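Predict the 3D structure for this chain.
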Amino acid sequence: MADWEAVGLSGFDAEVYRQLLREPGMPVAQHAEALGRPIATVEAAVVRLAAVGLVRSGSEEAPAPVDPRSGVGMLVRERRAAIDGVAAMTDQLAREFSAGQLRAEPSRLIEIAVGRDAIEARIEDMLRGATEQAVGTDTPPYVADGSHQVSSAELALLDRGVRFRSIYASEVLDHPAWVAHLTSMAERGEQARVLPQVPLKLLIVDGTTAILPLAGGDQPATPSQARAVVVTDSVLTNALQVLFDQLWSQATPLRLTESDAVDPAAALINLLATGMKDEAIARQLGISGRTLRRRIAEIQEQLGATSRFQAGLQAARHGWR
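Done. Predicted structure below.
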C-alpha cells in the first residue's frame, strides 16, 4: 500500500479519499456509513483533504473529489519542492553546525592524521564526500611515481561530474610515470596547471575542508612518520582557498592530450611554458633531443624571437597558447 504519510496524509485520510472516488456526490453521512466510521471523523478527514487540494472547496456536505491525476500529482510536486528546498539548505546547515561546534569546542577545528595509510584514507573520505569541486597542489618530495590509491578516488570524483583542479610543480613532468598519470587524469576531465615552484601539498574539498602535511623537507617521510593536518570550515580554509586561487591564476595550463594541443608548434610552446626540461619534452613528444632543439630554433625564427622566453611571449600574442 502507498505510504500516504509521505505527502502529508494519514492512512484514514487516504481511505476516505478512495471512498469519495468510488462514490462521488454522496453525502458525508453515507460515506461514513459505508466506511463504518463516525460522521464527525469522516467530516474531519474531508476537511483535511480539501485543505491539500484533493476535495473541491465548498463541497463538504457532498464532497467532490479532485481527479487524482491532477490532485495527487500536484501534492507530490509540492512535497518534492519542499524536500528539495530543505536539501538545498544542507550546506548552510552544515556551516552553521561547524560554526557551533567550533564555538563549543575550538579543538574540533583541527584533526591530525598520523601515518601514510591514515592520511590516504582521510583524503579518500574527503574526495568521496565532494559535491561541487576539489582543488589541490602537488610538489616534491614524491612518495612514488604516481599516487595510484588517491588517483582512483579522483577518478570516481570526476566520474560523478565534480570539478577537479590541480596545480603541479613543473618537476613532476620530469617523471614519465607521472606524465602518463596526468595525461590519464586530463582525459577524464581534470584541469591541471603547473608552476616552477609550488609552496606546499594541499587538498581542499568544496572550499570547507583542507588537508596538508605538517612537515616539509626535501625527503618524503617514512610511512609511520607522515603527519597531516585536516582543517575544517573556518577562516583557515578560506585563506587556503584564496592561496590556491592565487597560485592558479599564476600557473600555466598543462596540455598533454591530443585534443588540447592539435598544433605541434603550439604543443611545443605549451610544454616549454610549463618549465619541463628538454629531455622530458622530447620524451613527451616522442622525438630526439636534437630534433627538439631544431624545432625550438625553427619556432624562434618563425616568431622573430631571440630566446625561449621571448618566443613564449610572441606565441601568446599570436594566440598559440
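The first helix runs from residue 11 to 22.
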